[in-house]
Amino acid sequence: MARVRETCDVSPTPDITIPPSLLPADGRFGCGPSKVRPEAVDALAAVSRTYLGTSHRQATVKDMVGRLRSGLTSMFSLPDDWEIVLGNGGTTVLWDALCFGLVDRQSQHLSFGEFSSKFASCVQAAPWLADPEVLATDPGSHPTPVGRSGVDTYALTHNETSTGVAMPIVRPRGADPDAVVAVDATSAAGGLRFDPTECDLYYFAPQKSLASDGGLWLAAASPTALERIERIAAGDRYIPASLNLSTARDNSSKNQTYNTPALATILLATHQVEWINDNGGLEWAATRCDTSADTIYSWAEASTYATPFVTDPTMRSHVVATIDLDSAVVDANVVAAVLRANGVVDTDSYRKLGRNQLRIALFPAIDPEDVAALTRCIDHVVGELAG
Fold first, then answer.
1. Nearest alpha-carbon partner for 270 in 210, 213, 188
2. Domain ranges across the chain
3. Cα separations (Å) of 165 from 64, 95, 317?
4. What's the pLDDT tens digit per position in 147-191?
């Protein structure tokens, strides 16, 4: 029987030591903020006196922003007439900006988890917009967009971080010709494949697949999206300056942001994007995530106590895996606590989903060999708890 290790938690953590031979080389499996590669941190330290603490309006920082924008254009294989736009505040702030500056009158939203529902809530609260159409499914699956006359913005989510469900990005059939397809790719960008011709705005934050910190939003914007942004900004709708997408576009074209950004975040994201591009681009990164996904899901399917939460293999995310544990065998919270005590961190389930579950990031920065090691650690912990 495992001994108990006293902690500040309500329930003591069993005193189980995972043999060093089983441990991953890096124990970070969080879904955001995610693992930052040590090489990127070293690169940041190397320029600490020449980059950090310098003006974001000067060449030193503007060159880094330019590298990030250029790197993303290359990584996504964007058409020449697309632009990378960025601003401060992360995806949550961008949803507000999209309510002011992208949705013309009515939007359709696919809701299948915590984060995919939030943009719809923002639109619902905006008095200048019509009530959004929300197509919802229970967590563990995803709905399909439906083209409708009069819907000017389709809000899709490439990867639902809370549930580990990914969906293909496909422009809705029957949509109006000038409709904009906006895709929340916060946990997908850099780890999942997509075709830019199937959407108009592919937006994200860098604290997940881009292995950086939060507080920044980025968006790949098509000419259709850019035209919508400029038309609304030129109209009579009030738009706060900090949420004005036209202002963000103008500043981005100068490789800067409207207000002061976190310089470390920009450098770390740039380092990750260039690392991906140097190794073969998005296809290489997505294949690396495929390997990790195959490892974790194959292990769960073969397990006597673990099961993939997402039952349809075609909907299982390759950047965020959610694994149910048999509550009759083990408490997932206890497993996560023991893992954490051994330096394997952030495997806890998403708090609002309320399942006996582990949630495991499979982002490109995470070595597939470490994912394999994690499965062995989980087996060891469960064996000790059940022994």
1. 210
2. 3-38+280-386, 54-278
3. 33, 21, 5
4. 999 999 999 999 999 999 999 999 999 999 999 999 999 999 999
- For the structural domain made of 3-38+280-386, what CATH number should be given? 3.90.1150.10
Three-state DSSP string of the chain: CCEEECCCCCCCEEECCCCCCCCCCCCECCCCCCCCCHHHHHHHHHCCCCCCCCCCCCHHHHHHHHHHHHHHHHHCCCCCCCEEEEEECHHHHHHHHHHHHCCCCCEEEEECCCCCCHHHHHHHHCCCCCCCEEEECCCCCCCCCCCCCCCCEEEEECEECCCCEECCCCCCCCCCCCCEEEEECCCCCCCCCCCHHHCCEEEECCCCCCCCCCCEEEEEECHHHHHHHHHHHCCCCCCCHHHCHHHHHHHHCCCCCCCCCCHHHHHHHHHHHHHHHHCCHHHHHHHHHHHHHHHHHHHHHHCCCEEECCCCHHHECCCEEEEEECCCCCCHHHHHHHHHHCCCECCECCCCCCCCEEEEECCCCCCHHHHHHHHHHHHHHHHHHHC
Give the Cα separation of 59 and 256 in Å (integer). 10
User: How many residues in total does the chain contain?
Assistant: 387
Question: Which token pair is 201?
Answer: 């705005």
Q: Are 209 and 364 in contact (CB under 8 A)?
A: yes
Mean per-residue pLDDT, 326-345: 98
Taking the C-alpha atoms of residue 132 and residue 109, their distance in angstroms, rounded to an integer, is: 7
User: What's the distance, CA 91 to chain centroid?
Assistant: 10
Tokens standing for residue 144:
């399909």
At 104-154, the pLDDT tens digits run 999 999 999 988 999 999 999 999 999 999 999 999 999 999 999 999 999
pTM above 0.85, yes or no: yes
On whether the CB atoms of residues 217 and 261 are closer than 8 A, the answer is: no
Q: Which fold has domain 54-278?
A: Aspartate Aminotransferase; domain 2 (3.40.640)
Q: Which two tokens stand for residue 341?
A: 């005590």
